[in-house]
Amino acid sequence: MKNWIRHFIYFVLLIILVVLSIIVGKLSARYFSIELRPNYLYFILSFVIFTCIGFVLGMEHFYKQLKKHGKWHINLPKLLLIGLPAFYLSLANLIIFSYIDFLNNTIGAPLVYLYQSSGGGYVSLFQLIFGLTLITGFYREDKELNPYHDSNFNSSL
Predict the structure, then answer these.
(1) Full-model pTM
(2) Mean pLDDT for the stretch of residues 29-44
(3) Closest among 116, 81, 109 to 95, alpha carbons compared
């Protein structure tokens, strides 16, 4: 029964986050149509919402890791090869619309090209991938507990 409740909570969190993303998207579009410039707060809110969706999708993995015993480890190849590029691509809106020439001409140049050729639909996807990679990039090695060795027991007999 706990499994059903846990997954129902995940589902409710996903629905809430999706509804929030729709609201933020509509507010951002309305602001842009009135002011004719983007609002960075909406970009940041979108980043946080879609990253949280990735977190919720990876909560089952994290929950299983919490049940294990042992030291926490970092999956460095996963974080560097998937997480870092996903983070870079998920910040495209902030970098492109910052109107800072240094950013747009250096680290933003590939993003501008990708944004122009795709319409920017990839940004939310990479925000989600970033959140999922971040929460699944940590794990525990499951070590068997030795019932005869308790680290809290002082065997000075």
Answers:
(1) 0.86
(2) 94
(3) 109
